[in-house]
Amino acid sequence: MIWTNDPTRLMLVAGISVAYALVCLAPYLRTRRKRLAAARARAEAAVSPGWIVSYASQTGNAEELARQTAAMLKLAGIPARLAELSELTADDLLGAERLLCLVSTYGEGDAPDGAAAFAGRLMTTALPLPRLHYAVLALGDSAYAQFCGFGRALDQWLQAQGARSLFPRIEVDRSADAAIAAWRQQLSHLAGTSDAPDWSAPAFDAWRLCERVQLNPGSAGAPVYHLALAPVSGVLPDWQSGDLVQIAAPADPDHPRDYSIASVPADGRVHLLVRLHRHADGSHGVASGWLTQQLAPGGTLPLRCRPHRRFRLEENADRPLILIGNGSGIAGLRGHLRARALAGQDRNWLLFGERNRAHDFHYRAELEALRQAGRLTLDLAWSRDGGAARYVQDLLPARAAQLRAWVADGAAIYVCGSLQGMAAGVDHALADILGRDQLDNLIAAKRYQRDVY
Predict the structure, then answer these.
(1) Which of 19, 27, 161, 181 has the fewest CB atoms within 10 Å around its CB?
(2) What domain range is 115 assigned to?
(3) Is the pTM higher than 0.90?
(4) Is 228 in contact with 301 (CB distance < 8 Å)?
């Protein structure tokens, strides 16, 4: 080693050392804060262990409403334990007096990931709960045949166990304000207070469309566009990879659409990937048509960022990462890859599927550059190009040994893309390779996360 007394070099070495120490320290501090927060929550709940606020969220809506519910109870002097539904045990339910459940539905009536373990462990058994009083806020989308299917199933199971409903189940169609207001009103009666915190969602801010580029010219599929957006105020909000934005189209402002963010704050822009939806009669989707065909570059739109805690990296930031997706689902996975590149994390494996390699390889140059730099393992499936692996789920069986090795080495799995076909196919393939029990354990440990639609 060559040592030097040059002050400039010494300062440079010191700066690099401090920066490295901060990078190493950040994950520890995040974990420590979470443990301290959990300990505080347990201590508060111990004062009044009879109240539990539980949630099962796929995109974060139910979790945020549950946090607001717990805050309202606390304001009224009623400490309550806040917990994901799958964290609850039979003893928790037997010991509770009040259980408030805020749950979403995954796909056609299934339990979301945050409730899968609870549904499999408890809702398949009999559990006498005669002293339990409960309420259910069920979140769903009436576009699905099994609207609020899991919320209804949970309500029916609790009734069958002898638990008594505090008030009729409240169902929320696509975050409808009236239904959420009804839940808040019922809570006010329970808590004996009308001095409740503000439950309104953050206001929409004005953003500008800076760039719009079609990524798949010549594709046999619907056009897919890359959008770059910037706040009109010039103040960029903070977000994490995995988070969402909500955009309110002028023709339907009461039902904002969620889009995965394909960028990180260091990019200086919110990047989105929007596929133009065409109805059978040839008309365009309300939001996708406006964003890709009608809104002119330089025009403004109402947008707000929304945390998506079930798809953030958080505790998985330092793990090897397996990313699986198809179509426009590459947006959420690209956000993670950009975050990993900034953090110097190179154990990344992307399995991606689309129609044709020639036209539908979204962000091709960027992904191939990562692969060539040794920062990404890349496997691809093309449904219209022939070959055995036509869909992304078809890639998994041939790579079973590699997948098991990555999981054994601590890898987390993130899936983003279409609910129909892809998500179910990937889940079945993973269960065949790892075993359903191990896959359920990965869900419970938040090492198997999904953002599907």
Answers:
(1) 19
(2) 48-191
(3) no
(4) no
In this structure, the strands spanning 321-326 and 98-104 are unpaired
Residue 282 zone, left/alpha/beta (φ > 0; ψ -120 to 50; rest)? left
Same domain, yes or no, for 316 and 446?
yes
3-state SS of the chain: helix, strand, coil percent to 5?
Answer: 40, 25, 35
Residues 274/292, Cβ–Cβ less than 8 Å: yes
Q: Verify that 324 and 254 share a domain, yes or no.
A: no
* Total domains, the chain: 4
pLDDT digit string, tens, across residues 324-360: 999 999 999 999 999 999 999 999 999 999 999 999 9
224: domain CATH number is: 2.40.30.10
**Statement to judge: residues 144 and 61 lie in one domain:** yes
Ramachandran assignment for 402, one of left (phi > 0), alpha (psi -120 to 50 degrees), beta (any other): alpha
Residue 301 inside a domain? The answer is yes
What's at 408, amino acid-wise?
A
Q: Which amino acid is at 30?
A: R
